[in-house]
Design brief:
713 residues, alpha/beta, Rossmann fold, N-(1-d-carboxylethyl)-l-norvaline Dehydrogenase, domain 2, 8-stranded mixed β-sheet, 7-stranded mixed β-sheet, 20 strands, globular
Length: 713
């Protein structure tokens, strides 16, 4: 044995050829601190071995290496000096692999991401099997590769391909990896190890010139000044168009490649270290790493709940077709759970099927699915006008009109049709689950299952627990949501549940700005361009539907009369009264049409001011942001304090996946902690006279006083 560690070991597998095998005790290999230290020691042992002629690097697991241990990042990044030392040390470990006095080859199976990709780049040759997925996704964490990836990748596949890969964080499957030169060969899984050994033996024998293969990675980038100027100018334009000003990592990826282009490896690596450390200190990196960690918390809870489910969902029923019902039916069917779609009108069923067909058609057009998937999905949706077709389903998703009397009647009727152990859910967005449960004989098998529109694109499903809902019901619905490819978050019942409950104070803050005479296009511009929302509040109201938003204000006012009182004279109510419903009928705050190329466009028609009044006041961007966001953050804090949501992590993921909360801000709680609890309180107190929704809770004041965090780790 050349080297034996806990997470990897090295030994000769034939005369002269050593195998460095990553074999961590858990389900995957990753570059945590312990593994990096063992990797360094193993490479030292290899370099000192006089009998060594070649090195094979591979994994004992279904995946190669998934990357660095991201759970260590936030603690590490809090100490900038420690971060500098860590990244300098860690990146030089990979140099040890590249500098071995013998040829090396990586045999890549499964995921080789981040540090895993950087490890294979440090090898002289790379061979992959058909399961390989290779990439540098660090930009999605607000970072750039830190173990030499920005130096080696441009020298292996060229600067254009490298900058595209790094700035997008895209993964590469075997065919693409081979085409751009990221790997040297692709073989079947059962031939991976032997194929690697054949190449390694050829290199040892001199049939492959491994020294010539390695040399370009040690030298400045081979490109003339004109080529480099064109590459970097194009990359900068592409990144600015895609990432804008809020995401510094893609810009840093271009900068590090450009600055390092004329330098040899060691000097270029110093630049990578410098910019990596700089990014670790940005709010965007902390937020995006925070999202990753929060997502792991949510997924862990969901998997645990799903494993405890005693009922498997094999066949589903959707009540109410149309766009929403059709979207739910499509999502269930495309993920392998056949669905009965029931409505009282043939026209609605036709619309539901058309919605499913439209989604499939777009997927087919873009090459994401084939005709077989289209056929299988459509044949898995059974449209019907008869309740009797629902007799053998395992779950019902009620998606009829948002009216408590109609929903209650439909739920009571379907309970008599389905089996005694069938689960019944409602896709209501605001109506109390406990109130709807009053219509059922067995409320223990009932909960909310709130999808977001468009269903096939929005990853979140809110699962709403009523006071009588059983744990078995929650577990089974969680498992079904996961099978549908969704991220389920379980919340407790209250008006609006979680996402809509915190959305309406945001709308209310927006409405108060309108009342003060601030024009809505200006508010939208600030909330989109400066804060980072995909849509400003006026635009979002139009997308939600002003009639829907107006209806929901009744529910929210009834639930929270002192904080969310309805304003009959407000812009939302007046626009709905004048049948300006938003995108659904082409006119709301904005008016909607398509341009000559068929692309949707929105314009402000001055006629809207006849309804909402002329807006001529101005407000600074910081005031607009504060007056919209303080009510939302305050309401989310109340939801956590009241136990509507279990954790800050789940709250953040809910708003990112359900509303498109700007990822570079990390969710409402990450945003709150980035601003600083004391500073947020000071800002909110400035606007406290605007009403209760601007007034912070005693719990927040106590946390700020004690210097506590809302996050558990």
């Amino acid at each position: 044995m050349i080297y034996q560690g806990t997470n990897l070991h090295v030994d000769f597998i034939e005369p002269g050829i050593a195998e460095l095998l990553f074999d961590a005790p858990g389900s995957v290999n990753k570059f945590d601190e312990k593994t990096l230290n063992e990797f360094s020691d193993a490479l030292d042992a290899l370099a000192a071995n006089a009998d060594l002629k070649g090195v094979l690097v591979r994994s004992s697991k279904p995946t190669f290496i998934v990357g660095a241990d991201i759970t260590e990042f936030l603690t590490l990044f809090a100490d900038v000096e420690k971060t500098k030392k860590w990244v300098h040390m860690a990146s030089r470990v990979f140099d040890k692999l590249e500098d071995l006095p013998v040829p090396s080859i990586a045999a890549v199976n499964g995921f080789a991401l981040g540090g895993g990709c950087e490890a294979i780049l440090a090898c002289d040759y790379r061979i992959a099997d058909e399961t390989a997925v290779i990439g540098l996704p660090e930009v999605k964490l607000g970072l750039i590769p830190g173990f030499g990836g920005t130096v080696r990748l441009p020298r292996v596949i060229g600067p254009d391909n490298a900058m595209e890969a790094i700035t997008t964080g895209a993964n590469h499957k075997p065919e693409k990896a081979l085409a751009i030169g990221l790997v040297d060969a692709v073989v079947k899984s059962d031939r991976l190890k032997e194929g690697a050994l054949v190449m390694l033996r050829d290199a040892i024998a001199g049939d492959l010139d491994w020294k010539a293969k390695r040399q370009p990675k040690l030298e400045p980038l081979k490109a003339n000044d004109t080529e480099k100027l064109m590459s970097f100018s194009t990359a900068k334009g592409f990144v600015w168009a895609k990432a804008g000003k809020h995401y510094p990592a893609p810009h840093a990826a271009v900068e590090v490649t450009e600055r390092g282009a004329g330098l040899a490896r060691d000097e270029a690596l110093n630049i990578e270290n410098e910019l990596f450390v700089k990014l670790t200190q940005t709010d965007a990196a902390r937020a995006q790493v925070g999202i990753f960690l929060a997502d792991q918390v949510v997924k862990g809870k969901s998997k645990k709940a799903a494993k405890s489910a005693s009922k498997e969902i094999k066949r589903a029923g959707v009540l109410g077709a149309g766009i929403m019902g059709g979207g739910i039916a499509y999502q269930s069917a495309v993920k392998g759970v056949p669905v009965v779609m029931k409505d009282i009108r043939r026209e609605a069923l036709d619309l539901g099927l058309a919605e499913a067909s439209k989604i499939l058609g777009k997927g087919l057009e873009r090459g994401k699915i084939n005709q077989k998937v289209v056929a299988k999905t459509l044949t898995s949706i059974t449209p019907t006008l008869n309740n009797s077709e629902l007799a053998d389903v395992d779950i019902i998703v009620e998606a009829v009109v948002e009216n408590p009397k109609i929903k209650g009647s439909v739920l009571a009727e379907v309970e008599k049709v389905v089996s005694k152990d069938a689960i019944i859910t409602s896709n209501t967005s605001t109506i109390s689950i406990d109130k709807l449960a009053e219509n059922l004989q067995d409320p223990s098998r009932f909960c909310g299952m709130h999808f977001f529109n468009p269903v096939h694109k929005m990853p979140l499903v809110e699962i709403i627990r009523g006071k009588h809902t059983s744990d078995d019901t929650i577990a089974a619905v969680t498992a079904y949501a996961m099978r549908m490819g969704k991220t389920p978050i379980v919340v407790n019942d209250c008006p609006g549940f979680l996402v809509n409950r915190v959305l309406f104070p945001y709308f209310a803050g927006f409405s108060l700005l309108l009342d003060d005479g601030v024009d809505f296009p200006g508010i939208d511009k600030v909330m989109e361009k400066e804060f980072g929302w995909p849509m400003g509040p006026a635009y979002l109201c139009d997308v939600v539907g002003l009639d829907t938003a107006d209806h929901a204000t009744h529910v929210m006012a009834e639930g929270f009369p002192t904080r969310m009182a309805r304003d009959d004279n407000g812009a939302i109510a007046q626009l709905a009264k004048n049948e300006r419903y938003g995108q659904k009928n082409g006119k709301g705050f904005y008016e909607y049409s398509v341009d000559k190329k068929g692309r949707p466009k929105k314009v402000v028609n001055p006629d809207v001011y006849d309804i909402i009044g002329k807006k001529e006041a101005s407000a600074e961007k910081d005031e607009i942001i504060a007056r919209c966001m303080i009510p939302m953050v305050n309401e989310m804090i109340r939801c956590l304090e009241e136990g509507i949501v279990d954790s800050a992590e789940e709250a953040d993921i809910a708003l990112i996946y359900g509303l498109g909360f700007p990822p570079f801000r990390g969710g409402p709680f990450r945003y709150l902690e980035t601003v600083g609890l004391n500073k947020f309180i000071e800002l909110a107190d400035k606007y406290a006279d605007l009403g209760e929704m601007y007034q912070v809770t005693d719990g927040l004041r106590e946390k700020a006083k004690n210097g506590e965090s809302y996050f558990k780790s």
